[in-house]
Amino acid sequence: MAEEPSSRAYWDKLLKLVSRHTRGRGDAEDLLHSAYIRLEHYRSGHVVDNPSAFLLRTATNIAIDIHRHERLQQPCGDNQDVQRPDDAPLQDEVLAARARLARVKEGLAKLTPRTREIFLMHRLQEMKYREIAVHFGISQSAVEKHIAKATLFLTNWTQGW
Known about the structure:
By secondary structure, the chain is an all-alpha fold. It has 2 domains: 8-73; 91-159, Arc Repressor Mutant, subunit A. It has 7 helices and no strands. The protein has helices at 8-21, 28-43, 51-73, 91-110, 113-123, 129-136, 140-159. It is elongated and about 60 Å long.
């Protein structure tokens, strides 16, 4: 969001996001206000590169804390209708995760076959470096270099997106 934190348009956009992220609790304005106070307090000693993200995350965390506190205060009984929060990710989060996954797959395809295979054996099959070294008949140091090479490439590849 390019607007200044003090503008009404900026505040309204954040308010909608907070409301969505807190499942429409009805107190999004209060949550955002509390988050803004924490932002200003935090800024007195730190640099905040992305105030929007800070506000959204803080408001969401405050809502979680309130929910936990309320849940602890309520006696549990067999007759009570217990509403459980929906832990499913939001649709835009799912789409963003799919886009990141597609980007990682593209990056993996750009690695040499051996580096890719070593990296995937370590990350997906959770094989130890020495097991991979024995499998390929190479040194453990060579395995470390392949994994470091793949990690560095994928990090740069996904950040350059």
